[in-house]
Amino acid sequence: MTKSVALPEACVEALADTMRPDFLKALCDPVRISIVATLAMRTRPATVSEITDCCGIDFSGVSRHLKILKEAGILHSHRDGRRVLYNLDVDALAATLRAMADTLEVCQREAV
Question: Coil, strand, or helix at residue 72?
């Protein structure tokens, strides 16, 4: 009986560590999904102007979405003269998604 009481608490704590609300919120918007997809298909970083072509919204709107994605650790940016270049942090994105999946699998196995 102790295991069944402790298990949900342990899973909740483990999931709270891996399922970051800022990360999930950043990925739940259709425009941001389009931005992530656009950057995932590129072989080099992109400017805001280049990214704007994918989304059907204006420059300032894309900039706001890029800021959210960057703050969530999904994108990197760096300055190149007057331009800011953005690229997808594939390793960080994949690691976070794997950690979520791994945690869910551990909780499922321990529940049995």
Answer: coil
* Tally of domains in the chain: 1
The CATH number for 91's domain is: 1.10.10.10
| Rounded Cα–Cα distance for residues 105 and 99 (Å) | 10
Residue type, 55: C
What pTM did the predictor assign?
Answer: 0.82
Residues whose CB falls within 8 Å of the CB of residue 99, separated by 6 or more in sequence, listed in order: 18
Write the burial class of residue 6 (CB in 10 Å: 0-12 exposed, 13-18 middle, 19+ buried).
exposed
Domain span holding position 103: 2-111
Which uninterrupted H or E stretch holds 90? helix 90-111
Q: In this predicted model, what pLDDT tens digit does every residue of 88-111 receive, in sequence order? A: 999 999 999 999 999 888 888 876
The conformation of residue 77, written as its DSSP 8-state character, comes to: E
Do the bridges between strand 83-88 and strand 75-80 make them parallel or antiparallel, or are there none, so unpaired?
A: antiparallel
Find residue 30's DSSP bridge partners: none
